[in-house]
Design a protein that fits this description.
By secondary structure, the protein is α/β, with parallel strands linked by helices. The chain has 3 domains: about 120 residues, MurE/MurF, N-terminal domain (Udp-n-acetylmuramoylalanyl-d-glutamate--2,6- Diaminopimelate Ligase, Chain: A, domain 1), CATH 3.40.1390.10; about 210 residues, UDP N-Acetylglucosamine Acyltransferase, domain 1 (3 Solenoid), CATH 2.160.10; about 25 residues. The radius of gyration is 27 Å and the shape is flat.
Length: about 375
Amino acid sequence: MSFFYEKIIKLFDYLRSKCYLCSQITNKMEFQAQQIAEYLDGTVEGNPQAAVQTFAKIEEGMPGAISFLANPKYAHYLYETESSIVLINQDYQLEKPVKTTLIRVANAYEAIARLLTLYESMTQRRKGIHPLAFISETAVVADDVYVGAFAYIGDGVKIGAGTQIYPHVVVEERATIGENCILYPNVSVYHDCKLGNRIILHSGVVIGADGFGFAPAEDGYEKIPQIGIVTIEDDVELGANTCIDRSTMGSTYIRKGVKLDNLVQIGHNCDIRSNTVISAQSGVAGSTKVGEWCMFGGQVGIAGHIEVANRTHLGAQTGLISNKKEGVTLMGSPAIDAKQFMLASAYFKRLPDLAAEVKALKKELAALKAASEE
């Protein structure tokens, strides 16, 4: 464990036992380039004593801030930024001298993520049970759990250590929530659902609403009872207003490490496997299995009762209606190979001109046929 990390942990353990004002001190702590480089296993180019107290985008750099460069489109800012420290990749080749101190790391984007995570962990965590919260006498809530005003914790609920339940959250009967989770305001967890550890649910998330199951009948549609649950494994994060439907029987599964954006809909009996990421406004219809390490762009639609292979990449607004082999990149609706889609799109733009050419050719061909028959 590096000196920098040990220092952070000791300071955090001390400060979090103090009052709110101490959290403001936490936000103003200063660290030097050499300490940061040790924590990130990087190397310093420039002043190892360069100090920072905050973060800034490279194009908005300021003295006392640390920035990063990962996207080549922003490379020109490196030579003019006012940030005191900039993280760059080890293999990045400078075009000219820079005035900032550089820290070379294996992956600048990953490195800044590690620093931001550490910085966030140093902020004051909420503690205690608000007097306006309702907690059932049969609920089991760890001693260091925070429960905000007007939150509801139902009968038989179990909540693990370090979990944060923000105001107006509803956790219904017999639901289980693991350790160090965060449920932001207005999250609803329906009865019997199971959540693992280190889960983040943003505002408006609904876990365990009924699946969309109706049977046609003479007088309309007969509702099919949804008696299953939702199971969410460790290290999952769900964006605002995302909904995970409970299964008809058994469980809908969100596996370890899955990240879903805002306004994502996962239908009943789906199984979203580990480390898959899905962008906003996407939907997965019922009983579909999505493989590991898949990446879906915004507004993707997945048909029901199919299986999406591991490492499938779907561009924005892709519509997938059938099984595909592993590791493909698809676009369009119905989905086809991304390169084919781009080629077809180029032709699509030219359709009016092509139609005019075909019309002219047909007219010319008709004239030639008429002339040959004379």
